[in-house]
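Q: I have 209 residues here and want to know how they pack in 3D. Can you give me a structure?
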Amino acid sequence: MNKLELQKCILGPVMTNCYFLKNKETGELLIVDPADQPQTIFEKIKEMQARPAGILLTHGHYDHILAVEDVKKEYHIPVYASAMEEETLEKPMVNLSAFQGRACSLKADVLLNDLEVFEAAGFSIQVIYTPGHTAGSCCYYLKEEGVLFSGDMLFYGSVGRTDFPGGSTADIVKSLHRLLESLPEETEVYPGHDISTTIGYEKRYNPFV
């Protein structure tokens, strides 16, 4: 975590973790899952004295995307998402925003493929497809910093729900095994809700392994 300053806000109706990844060397910043409450996000960015460079979406559910348009408009920055998540982002019935009275439809600026590595805010980031919670859920792995942003696929001692459109219990278990078998045990995992964990802890104690 040498050049990474990591902070979070817990936002929205279901206490979603919105992460702020500041590159201490360049001052640039990435926002992972701008869940809601754009004004709070703006204040956090100002407090961190950072320059936003992009928005990373782990998946398209309403509780992770409601502030995306406001944040994008405020800072003129691109939105990154899994290429397999287009339908979830675009369709309010699939991303569940239609059921919240806040119908939301988004298009990502950059669609990412499985295991693609890209540069943003001075970080090297790998996308790992992890379907199961949604059809196109993904995680973002920053190898040099030793961190993984897992969205709602992997939680402390658990995995995400699979009873929403595009969900699959079989797929989420496969995704879990893929992560646990491919990443170092010391990797810090930052999920979309609740507290952080590590790959090593989940290998030993996650009941879905």
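Q: Anything worth noting?
A: The chain has a mean pLDDT of 97. The CA atoms of residues 40 and 46 lie 10 Å apart.
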